[in-house]
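$ fold --in a.seq
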Amino acid sequence: MRLLQYDDDGDLSLTEFFESDIPKYAILSHTWGAEEARRDGLQYFWVDTCCIDKPNSSELAEAINSMFRWYQDATRCYAYLSDVSKPAFDTNDKSNKLHWEVAFRKSRWFTRGWTLQELIAPTSVEFFSKEGELLGNKSMLETAISSITGISLDVLRGHPLAECTIEERMTWAKARITKREEDHVYSLFGIFDVTMPLVYGEGKVKAFRRLYEEISRYGK
């Protein structure tokens, strides 16, 4: 697992760790969150755009098959919502609070395939506006998040996914989108606790067929 490290001089470097040596780290949906993580006492963090060598097919496959676990093991996840505005001076303005809550419910973050596991797997998820202002965490905003996503409060609070039906878990991803059609399926590996090879070019139908076969094989 590769992690970005923030040193005492404020410089960033990429460091590789093996399972037994992985330090405490944060998950960032955008590199801006590095400073926020540092303020929270975290020196290491993971960002998919920086920490995965995507042209390396074996590394990409390992990362996608490990991603849900990496999210689970993270100390904290920082979600940056680029389409939600909450300027710092609006903190106590009720009308502006209503405005960002409406924007929060419509945020593209909740429509992306890969952010499903980013929402469910970590114990702590903090949401930030495009100005970098804290909107709240998964616990504080759970009622709104459940309404937006159709994910039950129990699941958002950590209820075992294995106790949810296959159909229920599939509905969480049904309306979500990914740039590559196969990723609509590959982003569900952790949701169903399966490991599969990546076959880009196979199309979504074949990818779903393989996923269902894997789920059936292990009764997940």
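$ fold --in b.seq
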Amino acid sequence: MAEEVVLLDFWPSPFGMRVRIALAEKGIQYEYKEEDLRNKSDLLLKMNPIHKKIPVLIHKGKPVCESLIQVQYIDEVWHGKSPLLPSDPYQRANARFWADFVDKKIYDLGRKIWTTKGEEQAAAKKEFIESLKLLEGELGDKTYFGGDNLGYVDVVLVPFYNWFYVYEKCGNFTIEEECPKLIAWAKRCLQKESVAKSLPDEEKVYGFVLQLKKAFGIE
């Protein structure tokens, strides 16, 4: 199986983490290839010539790009184990809506928190917390967004938990104070081996961001 599936990735990428979790949930063996984004490999440029971005999932020599699409593809191809998307069409549409919400809000707002200061950062923090509270509302009293089992929205969102430490350190605030239910959910997710082994150490991610800030001249 490993020779059939290859993942081109970059270790701190929350988008790549999604694919790692999905593959782990399905028990799929694969070859992991770490990319140097300053010197992209010929394979990456060949497999994703449009965006030239990671992650790229290669299955039987064919590329699948964009993490939301990759996770859905993994769920469809290996549908016999640990289904991620609901079977009900409405519930499936709802899961896709919230995954799209995460993509449109969480990454960009998080990036603003660590790249800006003053009023711009304050506005980003406010909208970030508001977005997390909306996600808390959708989670409700469920164990996971997927119900009793890890689902599509869980896989899409939980990689950002590893970046929360970055946002808190750079933005000087505490997410757990504002969104305790969401933090409790993330900790439940981390009890699953598929999640825990797919996410890097938060201190390591923070160290990476400090290097980026220095490279970008952000104090």
